[in-house]
Amino acid sequence: MTVITGLGIIAPNGLGTERYWDATLSGRSGIGELDRFDTTGYPSRLAGLVRDFDAAQYLPGRLLPQTDICTRLALTAAGWAIEDAGLDTAAVRDYDMSVVTANASGGFEFTHREFRKLWTRGPEHVSVYESFAWFYAVNTGQISIRHGMRGPSCALVTEQAGGLDALGQARRTIRAGTRVVVGGGADSAFDPWGALSQTAGGRVSADPDPATAYRPFDTRAAGYLPGEGSAILVLEATESARARGARAYGELAGYAATFDPAPGSDRPPGLGRAASLALADAGITPAEVDVVFADAAGLPELDRSEALALRELFGAGGVPVTAPKSLTGRVFSGGGTLDVVCALMSIRDGVIPPTFGTRSVPAEYGLDLVLGTARQTRVDTALVLARGRWGFNAAVVIRSVEKGS
C-alpha cells in the first residue's frame, strides 16, 4: 500500500491543516477582493487569495530573490508536510526520496516583473533567476534541493487535474521502489497579466458578491473563481512508514486519468470513466464509496456533465457529494490535493464538509449535495475528482488504513 503520512496546507482560508479544516467545516471563506493592483475594468475582481503569509518567516532569505510566490507556497507547504510526517530526511538515503509536483501557471508574477524590466530598462536589469523561476518544474527542483531528495522526480502540467496526477505518479514511483515521495500541487497567478489571462477564458464568474459568485451545481451557477495556494503531501510505502513508526492518515488506494474525446465525436466526457477506473484500481465497487469530492466547475454545462457521470455511477442520490472549493476558489494544481486533505480529515473525524454558496440544485442532477452544515457520518472511502481545462480528467480513491489493510 501507499499511505499518506504528512500534510502541508496553504489555502486562502487557512494556513496549516487544522486551520484550513476548521475553516472548511465552519464556512469561513477565503474569497475576497483582488487588491494587489488596480483591477478597474477587469470583468471579475474576486479571487481566493492567501493572506497573512510572509515567506520570510518560513524560508531562508537567500531563496526569496530567486522564487515566485508559487514556489514559496510550495516550499513552505512541503516543509510543513515533512515536519508533520515526522520524517528525518537526514536519516533516509537521498536516492530513496523523490518529489512530484504539479503546476499550471509557472512563476507568473516573477517572470512578468522581469519582462517589465527587460522592456523598460534593458536586458542587463533582468534577474539571472528568471532562467528557472518561471518554469513549471521549478517547485519540484527547489523542494528536491532544499531537502536533499535525489530519487526519480518529475513535474506535471494538467491544470486542475494536476494535483491528483501528481499523487498518482507519486504512488507509481513508490511502487517502483522509492521509499518516500513528496507530492502535490501549487499555483498562484494574480499579477495583472495573470489575473486577466484567467478571466479571458470566459469561465470566471462576474458576480461581484463573494457569497454567491462561485456556487457549483446551483441553478444560478455562472462560473468559478480562481484561487491560489498549495497542498503538499508525504507519501510512503507502508513498510517504510511502519518501520519508522509513522502515523498514516489514509491510503491512496486508487488512481486513474483520462482525456476527453474530440469535440463532435458524440462520445461522453472522460470524467466518469476516470472515476470508474479509479474504483477498479482500488478494487472496490461504487457502493463502498462514502463521499465524493466533486470537481465542481460552477458552469452549468460542466456541472451537468459531472452530475450525469455521478448519477450513472452511483444512481440518483446514491452517494453524498461535496465541493469545499467554493470557499477557496479553484486553486488549479493545488485544488485536487486540497480536496484529498479534506477526504483524509473526513475519514479522521467522521464528517463531510458542506458546499457553501450553493442553494438550489436542479432536480435533474440527482445529487445528494451536502449543503448548509457539515454532515456527521462514518467515512472510510472517498472519491476525489478533478478536471483540467482542455480535457484532462483525474480521480483518486482515498481509504482509511483500517479499511485498506
TrEMBL record:
CDD domains given in the database record: CLF
Keywords from the named record: Acyltransferase, Transferase
Domain Ketosynthase family 3 (KS3): 1-400
GO biological process: fatty acid biosynthetic process
Pfam families from the UniProt entry: ketoacyl-synt, Ketoacyl-synt_C
EC number: 2.3.1.-
A GO term, aspect molecular function: 3-oxoacyl-[acyl-carrier-protein] synthase activity
InterPro entries for the chain: Beta-ketoacyl_synthase, Ketoacyl_synth_C, Ketoacyl_synth_N, PKS_Beta-ketoAc_synthase_dom, Thiolase-like
Recorded family membership: Belongs to the thiolase-like superfamily. Beta-ketoacyl-ACP synthases family.
Record-given protein name: Putative Actinorhodin polyketide beta-ketoacyl synthase 2
